[in-house]
Specification:
Helix content is about 30%, strand content about 30%. The protein contains 11 helices and 15 strands.
Length: about 325
């Protein structure tokens, strides 16, 4: 299959592709819209997209794209996120000592930087680049260790490392996954994320949704949908009563405000439900009566790695 993701090789999305689609063709894209658009245009089969993080919350740009893309969700995955502060290796060790023999110079170049060298270069950093999510997930470290450094948003974590390695700008660091070392980077500090359980949820998108046969005999299922209600008191409550009636657990509820004057209440929901069984069919029928619009984004198996420790509860 052809798998698309936003970023470059070594980013967190590419790590998910390597883990869940190891034998398929992976294609990197500049933006989330590009990755999803490739699937829409039949240039790819599946897009792997991050949608929310246990520390920083939802990826707002993606949520704006979901209802408009026309794609269906067919699965989810969770990846524990570890960030590293890194710089181009050329600037970490600095200038070699004078009067070294050729053999000693080669040994010096191949040697790992000392802790003293790492500490020295850390305090010289004037700018840090990374994806906005990286900045949000590492705020405590940045405030403590680099309070005077300029924070600059980049289009991708690993992409920031690759681009900096090409620029070779001194006193600039990036926050990126360990895999970004492949671009000629040296890690100054590892695991700088604020929370040890820092985890990102990814969704898998394709053109056609899973049908009843695809999920037969699957027990833990999620149905993701978007509903629109009237703009009056109690409208959302009436819709939510349907889920209560059938004892269905909501694992996520997000609010959109759409329309020219942001006057149309729209809600994104993840429900522990199979839309194709008897309860699911009754729920959707009554939900349509309790709302003024409903769009089903897909029914798919819940990840077995859902865990309270990482901020994403099991569906039941």
């Amino acid at each position: 299959m052809r798998i698309t993701y936003q970023g470059v090789k070594g980013c967190f999305s590419s790590m998910v592709c390597d883990q869940y689609f190891p034998d398929d063709i992976h294609r990197s894209c500049l933006t989330f819209s590009d990755a999803m658009g490739a699937v829409c245009n039949d240039e790819a089969d599946i897009a792997v997209i991050p949608v929310e993080n246990s520390t920083a919350g939802r990826v707002a740009e993606v949520y704006k794209l979901l209802p408009e893309s026309g794609l269906s969700i067919i699965g989810e995955a969770f990846l524990q996120i570890h960030h590293c502060l890194m710089m181009p290796s050329k600037f970490v060790k600095g200038v070699p000592p004078q009067n070294l023999s050729e053999d000693d110079l080669l040994k010096w170049k191949a040697s790992e930087p000392t802790q003293e060298e790492l500490d020295k270069i850390l305090h010289s950093i004037s700018e840090v680049r990374t994806h906005p999510q990286g900045l949000l997930q590492c705020q405590k470290f940045l405030s403590k260790e680099l309070p005077n450094a300029r924070m600059r948003e980049a289009w991708d974590t690993a992409g920031a490392a690759r681009d900096l390695a090409r620029e070779l700008v001194n006193n600039v660091a990036v926050i990126a996954p360990k895999g970004a070392m492949q671009y000629g980077m040296t890690i100054l500090r590892e695991n700088i994320e604020d929370l040890s359980g820092n985890t990102t949820r990814f969704l898998f998108f394709r053109r056609n949704p899973l049908n009843a046969e695809d999920i037969a005999n699957k027990t833990d299922l999620i149905t993701t949908l978007v509903i629109k209600t009237t703009h009056k008191a109690g409208a959302l409550v009436e819709a939510l009563k349907v889920f209560q009636k059938y004892n269905l657990n909501l694992t996520k509820l997000e609010t959109y405000m759409t329309g020219y004057y942001h006057s149309e209440p729209v809600f994104y929901l993840d429900v522990a439900m199979n839309q194709f069984d008897e309860i699911g069919e009754k729920t959707l029928k009554e939900l349509k009566q309790a709302s003024i619009g409903i769009e089903i984004l897909g029914t798919y198996p819940a990840s077995s790695t859902r865990c309270e420790k990482f901020g994403f509860l099991p569906v039941k």
